[in-house]
Amino acid sequence: VQLVESGGGLVQAGGSLRLSCVAPGIIFSIATLGWYRQAPGKQRELVASITGDGSTNYVDAVKGRFTVSRDNGKRTVYLQMNSLKPEDTAVYYCNALSRRVGLAYDYWGQGTQVTVSS
User: CA 6 from chain center: how many Å?
Assistant: First the structure.
């Protein structure tokens, strides 16, 4: 299963972008959905996640600026990114994870580039 991301691009510092990720072919409602990013020369890091019951978690660097949400009917997870900074520049990946016995999966998207200019 390949998740499909969209919404990346080039934006000036202080601007906004919204990333979307569609997850076909999985039992979407049980998934914990995560947005990760990887900047050149750095390890991939978890930016934000949302569980099946809607609980969210953010890395400190994006708290108050990014918002993760999901639409189970559209099988889509979103990442609204506001007040973007040059250090947010990275390839952003979405992940769908389930650890439920008998329904376990761990799928990734291909990544979408976000570039923030100063």
Answer: 10
**38, 91 contact by CB (below 8 A):** yes
In DSSP terms, which residues pair with 94 in a beta bridge?
Answer: 35
User: What pLDDT is recorded for position 20?
Assistant: 98
Tokens representing 102 are 């008998």
Using pLDDT thresholds of 50, 70 and 90, give the confidence band for residue 1: confident
Angle at 44 between CA 38 and CA 45, to 5 degrees: 105
- Average pLDDT score over residue span 32-46: 97
Residue 40 to residues 37, 47, 61, 89, 96, Cα–Cα distance (Å): 10, 16, 17, 9, 23
